[in-house]
Amino acid sequence: MNRLMLGLVLGTSAFAATAADFENLRRPVATFSIVARDPDTGQLGVAVQSHWFSVGSVVPWAEAGVGAVATQSFVEPSYGPLGLDLMRAGKSAPEALKALLAGDATPEVRQVAMIDSQGRVEAHTGKKDIAHAGQIVGAQFSVQANMMLDATVPPAMANAYRSAKGDLAERLLQALEVAQGAGGDVRGRQSAAIIVVAGKSSGQPWVDRLFDLRVEDNPHPIRELRRLVTMQRAYSKLNEGDGYVARGEIEKALASYHAAMELVPDAATNGEAPFWVGVTLASIGRVDESLPYLKRAYAQDHNWEKLLKRLPAADLLPDDPALMRQLLTEMGAQ
Question: Which of 77, 78, 87, 1 minimizes the C-alpha distance to 37?
């Protein structure tokens, strides 16, 4: 148990700092971030960019049906899990943040924002955070930034989020993009991350985490994060299609697979989408329709031939040598 948690448990207002703690305080995670709740879907999210390696490993935290946290500046990562613990136990986001700040020996160097599943939100910018540092708390969202090139970054982020269209992930991305356009971190840019979770917990965290993506080190981290979000959308559609196949709902599976292909070009999926569309069609006897998709996959990587040959044993294609020869020939593998 760390000293911050111990202080909360014992009801003390502070925890003693050691030399090692002080050394950790001298490494600021200069960052701009946003926490938000979508009032229509209840989804909760947090997104961040920083000139700091792997910012996604320390700043953003979120849990379905509970809340989202961004902890930055002279970062204390435990604000993330402890904030979620307190909100899960029934505290509002403002109450949880107040409790954690009360148990922190150096709240003046923290910058933290929290939002709960009801949309209650609060933020804190310590008086010793490096300028330009500030926050804007709005209706079911908060933006916060420190060590920015210009003081216009938080208001630019807030205005961008308010006016953005699309689902929560899209609006979070737009807020990051506008913040960078307004100047961003005075030192530049390096990493970014986004987490979006369902508004209510299903008891299956792997289902509830709609987006959980990190760019650890990149000259254009938000651009790369947007690419990854698009890829996540495509692969979510592929997974959806696989679920339909497992239930024998082939037409729905094909619709999902086609939706995945429309989101990203073939090269971006390494043949995944066209290959599985082709396999699904061939498995239900629509061989002529399957061939263009299998050709597209094979053109990207000849190893799809090897996988195709293994599918009859897994009951994903009929065990029909004539059919296999036809598929391989039309693909160009024979």
Answer: 87
pLDDT at 27: 61
Instruction: Supply φ then ψ for residue 137, to 5 degrees.
Output: -100, 120
Model confidence over 221-258: pLDDT tens digits?
Answer: 999 999 999 999 999 999 999 899 889 898 999 999 88
Domain count, the chain: 2
Contact status, residue 266 vs residue 300, Cβ threshold 8 Å: yes
pTM of full prediction above 0.90: no
**Which amino acid type is present at position 332?**
G
Token pair of 328 as six digits: 């391989």
Q: Is residue 301 part of a domain?
A: yes
**Residue 191 sits in the same domain as residue 76:** yes
CA distance 58 to 31: 11
Which residues lie across from 25 on neighbouring strands?
A: none
User: What is the rounded distance in angstroms from the CA atom of residue 300 to the CA atom of residue 121?
Assistant: 48
**Segment 182-193, tens digit of pLDDT:** 999 999 999 999
* Parent domain of 324: 235-331
Q: What is the CATH number of the domain that holds 13?
A: 3.60.20.10
Other CB atoms within 10 A of residue 329 CB: 11
Name the one residue in this structure whose structure tokens are 């760390």: 2
